[in-house]
Amino acid sequence: MTAIAPPSTGRRQPGPTPAPAGLRRLLPRERAAEGAWVLPASAGVMALAAIVYLVNLTVSGFANVFYSGAAWAASQSWTAWFMGSVDPANFITVDKPPLATMVMGLSVRLFGLSSASILLPPALMGVATVALVMATVRRTFGAPASIIAGLVTALTPAAVLIFRYNNPDALLTLLFAGGAYALVRALETDRLRWLALAGVLTGLAFETKLLQGFLVLPAFAITYAVAGRGSWRRRLAGLAVAAVSVAAASAWWVIPMTLLPASARAFVGGSSDGTALNLVLGYDGLARVLGGSAGGGQGNGANFSGVPGILRLFNSELGGQIGWFLPLSVVGLVAGLVARARAPRTDLARAAFQMWGLWLAVNAVVYSLMSGTIHSYYVVSMAPAIGALVGGGVVALWRARERYSWAGVLLGLAMVGSAGVALTLLDRTPSFAPGLGLVVLAVTALTVPALALRAAPPLHGLQVAAAGLGLAMLLAGPMAYAIDTMQTAHSGGDPSAGPTASDAFADPGGQIAQLGTMPAGGPSGNASFGGGMGGSGGSSLNADTLAYLEANQGSAAWLLAVSDSNTAGQIELSTGRAVMSTGGFTGSDNALSLAQLQAYVASGRLRFIQVGGRGGGPGGNNASSDIASWVQSACAAVSVNGTSTSIYDCATVAAASAS
Question: For residues 92 and 111, what is the distance between their CA atoms, to the nearest angstrom?
Answer without folding.
Answer: 25
